[in-house]
Specification:
With about 260 residues, this protein is an alpha/beta fold. It is about 35% helix and about 20% strand. The chain folds into 2 domains: about 50 residues; about 180 residues, Rossmann fold, CATH 3.40.50. It comes from Methylophaga lonarensis MPL. Its main location: cytoplasm.
Length: about 260
């Protein structure tokens, strides 16, 4: 996700059993620990999960790799026949190490890991990083998703500054922020919160250049189907679905 001025936020908890965890999180993030307050943005520790709450955009936002849409996609998502898998170049016997430079809510990274890839998720925003960390911990504790979670490594920071990571990825994946086209209440709520946290992408040129410098095989950029090319750079190829386009770029040659 792009660098952005984060709105004021505090840490809270729903019952006394979560108080110690909330205090530890507040110290880690250097944010105030406050009572539940529906009028402000809060990262809330509950007995079951970590949630981001802002009443103005609806109910809480949290990440869950073990149930709901992601569980359904894990079982019935189309395997290597789905557009994302085709764009990544997945083939029988080829399951590359992928670096997701813009992890966000982690959905695409989870699908990649479900398809057998090893995925390094990089997230710059500290609140999203902790939501991802919490979701991966819960996925690791669930027998149905433990193997998938084990293939996902989470890193906090600016991908351009963290590179090079070892080992270098064969594929780099970019999903810069853009307005959601899905009109469902859930996606609308999540996207509103994400836009408040990270704002529009102003880092595309830098991300794409870094990705092409370090990817061994290819870079895949997720865009709305009719959107302009990232950084106005025409891709080598594209794979499209109903609402989404995956643009494929080759690595920059050295020398």
């Amino acid at each position: 996700m792009s660098e952005h001025h984060q709105p004021p936020c505090s840490i809270s908890f729903t019952n006394e059993g979560c108080a110690a965890s909330a205090a530890k999180l507040a110290a880690q993030l250097q944010l105030p620990l406050q009572p539940l307050d529906s009028a402000q943005l809060q990262l809330v520790v509950t007995p079951s999960q970590l949630e981001l709450r802002l009443t103005a955009v609806g109910g809480p936002v949290f990440i869950d790799f073990t149930s709901g849409k992601l569980a359904h996609r894990r079982r019935f998502g189309g395997g290597r026949g789905q557009p994302l898998a085709k764009a990544l170049g997945l083939k029988p016997g080829y399951q590359p190490h992928i670096a997701d430079f813009t992890a966000g809510l982690g959905r695409d990274a989870f699908v990649m890991a479900t398809l057998g890839c090893r995925v390094t998720l990089i997230e710059q925003n500290p609140l999203l990083y902790h939501l991802l960390d919490d979701a991966l911990s819960r996925a690791a504790a669930d027998p149905d998703t433990a193997d998938i979670a084990a293939a996902m490594q989470l890193m906090h920071g600016d991908a351009c500054e963290l590179m090079p990571i070892k080992p270098l990825p064969e594929v780099v994946y970019l999903d810069p922020m853009y307005p959601a086209r899905d009109k469902s209440a859930l996606v609308k709520k999540e996207m509103q919160l994400l836009h408040q946290l990270v704002g529009p992408d102003h880092n595309g040129d830098r991300l794409l250049e870094t990705a092409r410098r370090y990817a061994a095989k290819r870079v895949v950029v997720k865009r709305p189907k009719n959107a302009d090319y990232l950084a106005n750079q025409k891709p080598t190829a594209s794979v499209s679905s109903k609402n989404t386009r995956y643009d494929i770029y080759m690595p920059l040659t050295s020398g």
